[in-house]
Specification:
Layout lengths: L1 H4 L15 E7 L6 H11 L8 H12 L4 H5 L2 H6 L4 H17 L2 E8 L11 H21 L5 E9 L5 H10 L5 E7 L11 H9 L5 E4 L5 H9 L5 E4 L7 E6 L4 E5 L1 H8 L3 E4 L1 H6 L15 H6 L4 E3 L4 H4 L3 H12 L3 H14 L4 H17 L1
Parallel strand pairs: 1-2, 2-3, 3-4, 5-6, 6-9, 9-10
Antiparallel strand pairs: 7-8
């Protein structure tokens, strides 16, 4: 992945990759190396569109630029197919952490759906254990290079299926074995968090944190359900909260807006928005505002004081890294080191860690930005 990070610098020459970063929204089955997909596919006899890594990366990029979340999600049929064995899951998780470390990530949360990895005989618990084994090996690999990293699992339930409570119980069962939070993923429109209310009730009873995909392929009602039914402490993407912000007028220097009750609540409660700029363009999440990064409501939300964070979502499908996402935003909105540091501190504050450890993470970020 290092070649993807080359040349990403701020206007003052700062190497963005060298800055300490926090990754909150990064899917395991969306972050495979193309070469790994090919090798694992060959091992199980799975037919791929091509066996050339460069061409396969291009294929994922082309299929993902559809403007539709539903179409975007179809590319995961390939990646999940090669992640059905303990060996496959462990290898993918290990390389995932290695790539995060190479990108300057000091804390990451890896989200994935165990129920999608059972076709070759693994149990739910065995999949979590396999991924944790890979994470721990990857952490050791990163530390061997002289860098620091910490990584936790976010266990996801597929929102269009009926295993939410079972997956919530799985997450809580492994809270002392690397799992730090819960999520629901998959097609958003038509499958509100309210459908998984039993799972979220169970999590609340066990004081276990949840983030919810909301405000990506569906609007304000989805966000409202994430907060009310899901007790979400963060919003996965959440960019469509901007639909609840009315721009009254603009002049050369200022934009005057009015926040609705929902957006005001999200802002005032400092609920982190897990934005993923490139992915948001690919899936049409910001279609109401335009089709260019300059149209993304990220800067509006940032300027209004929302707790915005920057993420990759799926590094393979978007052909990206966290370094690249930060660079894209910096180029579009003239952000400097201070802005990028704020985004990382926002993410650290929203991390599913104990308070003292979030404060330690913030100190690591501040020291890294001052020393780089």
């Amino acid at each position: 992945m290092s070649e993807q990070n080359a040349g990403y610098a701020l206007a003052d020459g700062t190497d963005i990759r060298a800055l300490p970063k926090v990754s909150l929204h990064d899917h395991l089955d969306g972050g495979l190396r193309p070469s790994t997909v090919i090798e694992l596919g060959d091992a199980i006899g799975f037919e791929l569109p091509t066996t050339d890594p460069v061409e396969l990366a291009r294929w994922f990029g082309e299929k993902s630029n559809s403007g539709s979340l539903v179409e975007y999600l179809k590319t995961f049929d390939l990646t999940t197919a090669v992640m059905q064995t303990r060996e496959g899951l462990t290898r993918v998780a290990r390389e995932f952490v290695q790539d995060l470390g190479a990108d300057g990530v000091v804390y990451g949360e890896i989200r994935w759906a165990p129920e999608q990895h059972l076709t070759r005989g693994l149990s739910l618990d065995e999949t979590v254990e396999a991924v944790q084994e890979g994470i721990e090996a990857g952490i050791q690999d990163v530390r061997a290079t002289g860098k620091r990293i910490r990584v936790g699992q976010l266990v996801s339930a597929m929102r269009h299926l009926d295993r939410g409570l079972e997956i919530a119980q799985l997450a809580v069962r492994h809270r002392d074995n690397g799992v730090v939070g819960f999520d629901i993923a998959g097609p958003e429109a038509g499958f509100p968090p309210a459908n998984q209310r039993a799972a979220f009730d169970y999590l609340a009873e066990n004081f276990f944190p949840a983030t919810v995909h909301a405000g990506e392929a569906d609007g304000l009602d989805s966000i409202r359900s994430a907060l009310l039914d899901g007790r979400a402490l963060r919003l996965g993407h959440g960019v469509r909260i901007a639909e609840d912000i009315s721009i009254e007028r603009q002049d050369d220097e200022n934009t005057y807006v009015t926040l609705g009750t929902l957006s005001q609540w999200v802002k005032d409660r400092e609920i982190a928005l897990e934005t993923s700029p490139t992915s948001n363009l690919q899936t049409g999440a910001i279609a109401a505002w335009g089709t260019d990064i300059l149209d993304h409501p990220f800067d509006l939300l940032y300027q209004l004081g929302f707790r915005v964070t920057v993420n990759t979502d799926n590094r393979l499908m978007s052909g990206t890294t966290l370094t690249r996402e930060l660079s894209i935003l910096a180029d579009a909105f003239a952000y400097d080191r201070t802005d990028l540091e704020i985004f990382q501190l926002n993410a650290a504050a929203g991390a599913f860690l104990p308070l003292e450890e979030r404060e330690e993470l913030a100190d690591i970020i501040t020291a890294g930005f001052e020393g780089s």
